[in-house]
Amino acid sequence: MNVSAVLSVDHVSQTFGSGATAVQALKPTSLDVQPGELVALLGPSGSGKSTLLLAISLITPPTTGRIVIRDRLLWDDGPTGVDARAFRRQHVGFIFQQHNLIPFLTVQENVALVMQLNGVGAREAGRRARELLAYLEIDHRADMLPARLSGGEQQRVAIGRALANEPPLILADEPTAALDTDRGNKVMALLRRIARERGSAVITVTHDHRMIAGFDTVYHLEDGVLVDVQRNADPATAAA
Ligand SMILES: Nc1ncnc2c1ncn2[C@@H]1O[C@H](COP(=O)(O)OP(=O)(O)OP(=O)(O)O)[C@@H](O)[C@H]1O
């Protein structure tokens, strides 16, 4: 286990069901992710990518193994007493394939809400949300409802929401899958910028081989096994 890592996954496995119908969706898997690292989990359908991401987030905790995020032991073959939901809200950002924005709140309110859930006052949350939207170059849409934005713009707002509490770790489930290549590349470039400038580690599930040159590290999964680790020397240039 690496002490500087923002995330350590140590012999994490996942078995669904029991007895004759048990499925081992993820064999014991170990990996470390550093601050600012842009990581892809790549593999064919059913290879265990989402299972690993859901285990890391403790949304679906693993059957075995240890998970440490920012020096907190969150799972050790079972619960460790840490309130996973509260920890997640403060330290982990999520980006989904579909943006999941709240349709009756404006863009700014969608981002501010996440801050307010963590105890930030409404005015301050609004100010910070605006600032974040400006960083993402989407502040001109701040007062609109999500339905008025394009798919790429909505995904930018969803990224803003994931960043709202400045989490050290961002988990993304196929964030470019619903976008065309051009918009997908822009979202990837944004994730890279966030990792570089803000130091958040970003772990992205993908089965899109076109995108892999842009990641620092690519973990290849097959049938629930981590079969290969690919480290790209200069991903920003490779993806340009
Ligand atoms: N809750 C569950 N109960 C039973 N089996 C499951 C469950 N979730 C996943 N599986 C099985 O575990 C295996 C890995 O699934 P997983 O969703 O992790 O794959 P994936 O690589 O993310 O695939 P995709 O690219 O299609 O999303 C599959 O065989 C799947 O059917």
Automatic annotation (TrEMBL):
<dbReference type="GO" id="GO:0022857">
    <property type="term" value="F:transmembrane transporter activity"/>
</dbReference>
<dbReference type="InterPro" id="IPR017911">
    <property type="entry name" value="MacB-like_ATP-bd"/>
</dbReference>
<dbReference type="InterPro" id="IPR015854">
    <property type="entry name" value="ABC_transpr_LolD-like"/>
</dbReference>
<dbReference type="InterPro" id="IPR003439">
    <property type="entry name" value="ABC_transporter-like_ATP-bd"/>
</dbReference>
<protein>
    <submittedName>
        <fullName>ABC transporter ATP-binding protein</fullName>
    </submittedName>
</protein>
<dbReference type="GO" id="GO:0016887">
    <property type="term" value="F:ATP hydrolysis activity"/>
</dbReference>
<keyword id="KW-0813">Transport</keyword>
<dbReference type="InterPro" id="IPR017871">
    <property type="entry name" value="ABC_transporter-like_CS"/>
</dbReference>
<dbReference type="GO" id="GO:0005886">
    <property type="term" value="C:plasma membrane"/>
</dbReference>
<dbReference type="Pfam" id="PF00005">
    <property type="entry name" value="ABC_tran"/>
</dbReference>
<dbReference type="InterPro" id="IPR027417">
    <property type="entry name" value="P-loop_NTPase"/>
</dbReference>
<feature type="domain" description="ABC transporter">
    <location>
        <begin position="7"/>
        <end position="240"/>
    </location>
</feature>
<keyword id="KW-0067">ATP-binding</keyword>
<keyword id="KW-0547">Nucleotide-binding</keyword>
<keyword id="KW-0472">Membrane</keyword>
<dbReference type="GO" id="GO:0005524">
    <property type="term" value="F:ATP binding"/>
</dbReference>
<dbReference type="InterPro" id="IPR003593">
    <property type="entry name" value="AAA+_ATPase"/>
</dbReference>
<keyword id="KW-1003">Cell membrane</keyword>
